[in-house]
Amino acid sequence: xxxxxxxxxxxxxxxxxxxxxxxxxxxxxxxxxxxxxxxxxxxxxxxxxxxxxxxxxxxxxxxxxxxxxxxxxxxxxxxxxxxxxxxxxxxxxxxxxxxxxxxxxxxxxxxxxxxxxxxxxxxxxxxxxxxxxxxxxxxxxxxxxxxxxxxxxxxxxxxxxxxxxxxxxxxxxxxxxxxxxxxxxxxxxxxxxxxxxxxxxxxxxxxxxxxxxxxxxxxxxxxxxxxxxxxxxxxxxxxx
Length: 240
Description:
The chain is mainly α.
């Protein structure tokens, strides 16, 4: 089954909180949580203590699991797609279509590049023994990237949007372990990478908007989830 979602550009005044004018400023303390998560994952590559925690967590889950439940293949995309869904229903967020799509694209590029580089250079076997690209969890990184995106766009409307996004992201990470695909350290590192990627994207946005997208008044895009019989994925196309 192939599901496509067409996202049409809208004018800024129709799609942005009128009261929200400030760009998100860099704050060193906002690095604490993602740095701790990434650090836990990286240290876990060599720490016997954390490896033991990985093994005990995985063993505990196997002991109480009868069947795999692959909702994580879909839930990883839910937080950031929710941003577009809320706007489609008239609930305005921080940015218009153009700006939030630039931010999301930037975050996805940072997150995806980081995850793929670490997977290709690492040699961590998955809990189920299927491959040696376990570290970090790409599903979890995608989910937490989207959760932070949802939080930033809607924290001035209601903090509960952000909380719900983070709950879904946490559930995605849990199901990666539940389905015997990732260790706890993989999930922790993925979460940190996802959060940090979105934060960096917001910090870079004023520069990108001024230097690259300044004259582009309209931005059209298509987001296309896909399933090839084995893996779920997401394609994004933008025209500006």
